[in-house]
Amino acid sequence: MTIISSKDNPVFKETEKLIKSSKMRKKTGLFTAEGFRIVNDAVLSGCKIKNFIFSESACDKYNEFFSQCRNKGEKMYVFSDSLYSKISDTFTPQGMLACISRLDKNCLFDKIKLGGKYIALENIQDPGNMGTVFRTAEALGIDGIVLSKDCCDVYSPKVVRGTMGAVFRMPFSVVDDLGDFISGNRQLDSYAAVVTPDCEKAGSVKFSPNCITVIGNEGNGLTESTISACGRKITIPMGGRAESLNASVAAGILIWEMMRE
Amino acid sequence: MTIISSKDNPVFKETEKLIKSSKMRKKTGLFTAEGFRIVNDAVLSGCKIKNFIFSESACDKYNEFFSQCRNKGEKMYVFSDSLYSKISDTFTPQGMLACISRLDKNCLFDKIKLGGKYIALENIQDPGNMGTVFRTAEALGIDGIVLSKDCCDVYSPKVVRGTMGAVFRMPFSVVDDLGDFISGNRQLDSYAAVVTPDCEKAGSVKFSPNCITVIGNEGNGLTESTISACGRKITIPMGGRAESLNASVAAGILIWEMMRE
């Protein structure tokens, strides 16, 4: 196979843009995932892969996977180690990357009509937090995730990595207005997660089988309009000088409580 | 006040080493905290501050705090903005940093003899995870944290920042051998957090008022010897293709369960 070593190569240029630019990911309908484990996970989860990129060293190291892809007729490119290192997002690159078609998850809305337990995120800015919420939601059995459009890009490399593959499998949807979405889905009991103590306490709430809990921005919490749209308010009681929990830990505890039998 | 602008200045050189080197932090018994909120938190929490460092711009921006420190006769240095940016650990530096004496928390062992609820961390490597566990532990009311000596350095800038100040207030202790520590504290019910399903499930365990839960390394979990030292094993039931939770989320859920009434 030809080894690509030039920064002018169109595949290199496209991949670099996909990694760096949320706008490019939107425009092309593609995103990237890096590392053997997560690329393999994308394949096993049935994602549509546009192409695979291997570094020269990775062709040897992941020889079996490489041959498998080749035998299946997948579109594959090999970059010189030095060129590969220019697009790698990690300190110790494994030398494997896939460009993947964005996942059409609009089916979520139909699912919600059937009911279930959901998490919504409003204006979450830290990619690590968002990735961790996806990972927790999948592990504990949440039915789907709703994201406000001002959250960070769910297809950014850091989010994708943090989900540990959950992004490939978890139904999710980005909505224009979270308040409207909640008001429009009255079959779901809705809970706004807040830090004010004058509301229902996590631990004494029994969640119904059809419900949604909304988690807000790391620094500012939920907007007033989203809180008003929710039927109920819930808080995690805190003591000491601590003013708040990390958003992904708060989400973890609330998901745990939602799924409690 | 003299504005320091040279990289050869001894205060600059010492601070730079404290930020970068765990060995230097051990040797000098000092560590650093950066940013107005956390530095102020260190002061309010009664930490012994060796010196404050302000950038030129921060002297204006945090004028009140600056004058307060000066009036109290604190040791203070002003760095030119360009010099300050060389030691800042953050993308948008607030221009304020303190060198703080390490916190002697050996009192923890006496406290444990009196009982309470504790968390132990074994070989946690991600500073973000460790910081988040401190933050969660304080918010939910844990009595103290025990760290195995192979954990990442609790005084590293990333951990300190992630604790949101909890590191200044939460009793903690680093122990040579976690298994020995647990075996030596039989008055505490000890729980090893594991991912194997053949053990007690979080959610159905009622924790006693004197207990300790041990969380393991992000990739490999707990060592066999630590698991053996613990009286009981506990797991967070998971479904789907997810193999594990993020360590700080797992700790969050277990702390939540420990503190549940």
Write structural notes for this entry.
Chain A is an alpha/beta fold and 261 residues long. Chain A is 40% helix and 21% strand. Chain A has 13 helices and twelve strands. In chain A, the strands form two sheets. Chain A has a seven-stranded parallel sheet with strand order 8-7-6-11-9-12-10, with helices on both faces. In chain A, helix 1 crosses helix 2. Chain A is elongated, with a radius of gyration of 20 Å. The N and C termini of chain A lie far apart (55 Å). The relative contact order of chain A is 0.14. The interface between A and B is medium-sized, with 32 and 32 residues.
Short description:
With 261 residues, chain A is α/β, with parallel strands linked by helices. In chain A, 40% of the residues lie in helices and 21% in strands.
* End-to-end CA span of chain A: 55 Å
Q: What does the largest sheet of chain A look like?
A: 7 strands, parallel
What assembly state would you assign to the polypeptide chains in this entry? homodimer
Spatially, the strands of the biggest sheet of chain A line up as: 8-7-6-11-9-12-10
Question: Which stretches of chain A are low in confidence, meaning pLDDT under 50 for 5 or more residues running?
Answer: none
* String of helices and strands of chain A: EHHEHEHHEHEHEHEHHEHEEEHEH
Structural class of chain A: alpha/beta
Number of strands of chain A: 12
Strand content of chain A: 15-25%
Overall geometric form of chain A: elongated
Number of helices of chain A: 13
Quick one: which chains have the greatest interface? A-B, 32 and 32 residues
Any idea what the radius of gyration of chain A is? 20 Å
Query: What is the percent of helical residues of chain A?
Result: 40-55%
Mean pLDDT of chain A: 92
